[in-house]
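Try this one yourself first.
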């Protein structure tokens, strides 16, 4: 009688919920599967009302519970992705087939051969455990939708945890305790409000996630539960064999322990992870031979060809690739608002989607110093707590691993690695520790190289300053000699010996002046200026009128759109003068030099392009010589620090200078100024 009231009330409650679901305007296949699951639960409850169906037999209970579990598993499978249009799309998915295989076996095997009741109870225990595991996957990968899915997870989790305990106990004692069967109707009825709350919260069914391919679904939960079930079954046989007054007490203790164990394993992801790491560290051999790998990395970084910057960066990238036997990679350096590709192996630069992902990775990696596996993030984003990546941009990424390289706790850049899917590494604890050591070594190597370059450049500037001091000394000597000639000219201008000495002095003076002219340049050291907001068209127009009219072709200024930019006017004018003057000198009188200003409000950038149709430059010159200080093609007419100074200035204000050129067709220098 008590059982009939509970199941009857539960059936009535689910009937009301079913009627309400028909009025809910929710789209998607998962909503229809929820209607089916609600209807199945209602019919399941009615089948246990003995006044309607008669006494409940063992086969009736097992078949009814299996069918109910199968429908709810089908509903969960429909929630694992948000783009299902029909039931066939759900059923043909490999993950769904794996999910539904256990209930299908539990349903049809008793009709094919005689199965002991203890094995049927074990099947239903596994079905309840399967629901709990899928709920954990659904909740942990729901991301920002966790708040909406929490009532649904609590509803199904509480019911199937109860089912798990009931059938685990039945497996242990080879029979179902009557108290569990009687109380189920009331428990399902009391849990129903959570399902109602979930229906109201969830805006769309499906969270667009992937089912993990790991055998135990990213944890040792299934293995521990299986071992536990085996121990419980053995303990049950022992209890039945011994009997006595202690049998019920032992069963109660085992049930409570099972409940505590399951709650711990289901809810504590960190607990499971720590156990996995502990077992792997202490019971398995290392994945890498560190002595051999370290020697190989050292040899790659100490290559004798690492004299030029491109080779240094290339050696660094090849060292990282060789450390894990990957084939494709790109080394990018963070430059203010953008990234520069400094080395690549079997790769073609980086795309706009990849740049977008790198910008989203920078704050996370700078804070955590974590290595990121984008494939792992796509399937298990909860492993990267606090990291939010654009899903659409992620689909356009051609790399698997993003390894951050640090410079004084700031991101220097990334090593982006890719290989065949069959050879891709999984970032377990050992691989992470190993790659952290590799990236730290490579980062130190790159920073040492850049520091050495900075020291060398400072030494060149120091030599330049010393040269200037010698020039000033020579100028003073020359001026003293000329003054001496002028002072004695009136008195001795008719003396042949004085005239001869004068010509000899002038010859000496000319030789000294020729020497100084070979050393002198137009470049001078600028004093720090004052930054303020300016429209670049005003500064550029004034520069063209006052300093760029002496050479042809006369530059043409085109303003498509512009915003005010905070710059030092004098420094900006010097940078623009060098670039415009270079363009004029590289272009014939009948050619053109065009300066175009364009604002990019979406990217918060002001863009300045300096184009010409002059002689152009080849790729090797741009990479190896254009921005190298004190390297010039003008002979004695220049010092080769104009382009170098321009690029350093743009980087110092958070901007960027890039160049595109083709021999015989001209060049285009692009300056990008941040608006913020």
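Now uncover the answer:
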């Amino acid at each position: 009688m008590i059982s009939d009231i509970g199941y009857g009330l539960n059936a009535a409650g689910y009937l009301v919920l079913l009627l309400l679901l028909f009025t809910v305007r929710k789209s998607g296949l998962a909503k229809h599967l929820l209607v089916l699951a609600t209807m199945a639960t209602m019919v399941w409850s009615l089948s246990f009302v003995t006044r309607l169906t008669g006494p409940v037999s063992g086969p009736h209970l097992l078949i009814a519970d299996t069918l109910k579990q199968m429908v709810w598993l089908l509903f969960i499978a429909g929630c694992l992705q948000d783009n299902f249009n029909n039931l066939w799309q759900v059923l043909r998915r490999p993950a769904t087939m794996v999910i539904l295989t256990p209930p299908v076996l539990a349903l049809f095997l008793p009709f094919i051969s005689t199965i002991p009741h203890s094995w049927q109870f074990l099947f239903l225990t596994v079905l309840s455990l399967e629901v709990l595991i899928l709920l954990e996957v659904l909740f942990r990968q729901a991301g920002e939708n966790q708040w909406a899915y929490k009532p649904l997870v609590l509803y199904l989790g509480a019911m199937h945890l109860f089912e798990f305990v009931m059938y685990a106990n039945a497996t242990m004692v080879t029979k179902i305790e009557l108290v569990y069967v009687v109380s189920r109707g009331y428990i399902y009825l009391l849990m129903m409000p959570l399902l109602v709350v979930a229906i109201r919260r969830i805006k769309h069914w499906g969270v667009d996630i992937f089912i993990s391919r790991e055998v135990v679904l990213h944890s040792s939960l299934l293995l521990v539960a299986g071992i536990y079930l085996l121990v419980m079954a053995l303990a049950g046989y022992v209890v039945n064999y011994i009997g006595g007054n202690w049998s019920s007490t032992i069963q109660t203790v085992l049930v409570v322990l099972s409940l505590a164990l399951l709650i711990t394993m289901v809810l504590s992801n960190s607990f499971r992870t720590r156990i996995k790491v502990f077992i792997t560290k202490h019971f398995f051999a290392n994945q890498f031979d560190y002595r051999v790998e370290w020697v190989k990395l050292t040899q790659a970084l100490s290559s004798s060809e690492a004299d030029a910057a491109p080779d240094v960066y290339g050696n660094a990238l090849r060292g990282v690739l060789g450390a894990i036997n990957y084939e494709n990679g790109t080394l990018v350096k963070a430059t203010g608002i953008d990234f520069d590709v400094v080395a690549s192996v079997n790769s073609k630069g980086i795309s706009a989607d990849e740049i977008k992902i790198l910008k989203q990775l920078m704050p996370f990696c700078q804070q955590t110093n974590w290595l990121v596996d984008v494939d792992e993030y796509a399937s298990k984003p909860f492993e990267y707590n606090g990291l939010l990546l654009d899903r659409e941009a992620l689909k356009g990424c051609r790399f698997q691993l993003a390894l951050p390289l640090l410079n004084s706790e700031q991101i220097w850049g990334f090593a982006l690695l890719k290989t065949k899917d069959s050879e891709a590494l999984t970032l377990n604890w050992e691989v992470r520790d190993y790659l952290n050591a590799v990236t730290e070594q490579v980062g130190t190597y790159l920073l040492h190289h850049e520091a050495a370059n900075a020291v060398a450049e400072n030494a060149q500037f120091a030599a330049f300053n010393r040269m200037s001091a010698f020039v000033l000394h020579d100028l003073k000597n020359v001026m003293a000699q000329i003054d001496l000639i002028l002072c004695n000219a009136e008195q001795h201008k008719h003396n042949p010996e004085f005239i001869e000495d004068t010509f000899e002095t002038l010859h000496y003076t000319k030789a000294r002046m020729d020497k100084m002219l070979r050393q002198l340049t137009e470049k001078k050291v600028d004093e720090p200026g004052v930054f303020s907001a300016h429209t670049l068209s005003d500064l550029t127009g004034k520069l063209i009128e006052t300093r760029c009219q002496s050479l042809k072709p006369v530059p043409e200024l085109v303003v498509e759109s512009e915003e005010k930019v905070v710059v030092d006017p004098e420094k900006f004018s010097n940078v623009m003068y060098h670039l415009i003057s270079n363009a004029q000198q590289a272009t014939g009188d009948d050619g053109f030099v065009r300066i175009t200003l364009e604002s990019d409000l979406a990217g918060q950038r002001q863009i300045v392009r300096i184009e010409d149709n002059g002689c152009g430059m080849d790729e090797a010159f741009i990479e190896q010589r254009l921005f190298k200080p004190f390297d010039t093609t003008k002979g004695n007419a220049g010092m080769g620090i104009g382009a170098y100074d321009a690029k350093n200035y743009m980087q110092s204000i958070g901007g960027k200078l890039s160049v595109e050129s083709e021999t015989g067709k001209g060049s285009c220098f692009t300056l990008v100024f941040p608006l913020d």
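Discussion: The two ends are 75 Å apart (CA to CA). The chain is about 60% helix and 10% strand.
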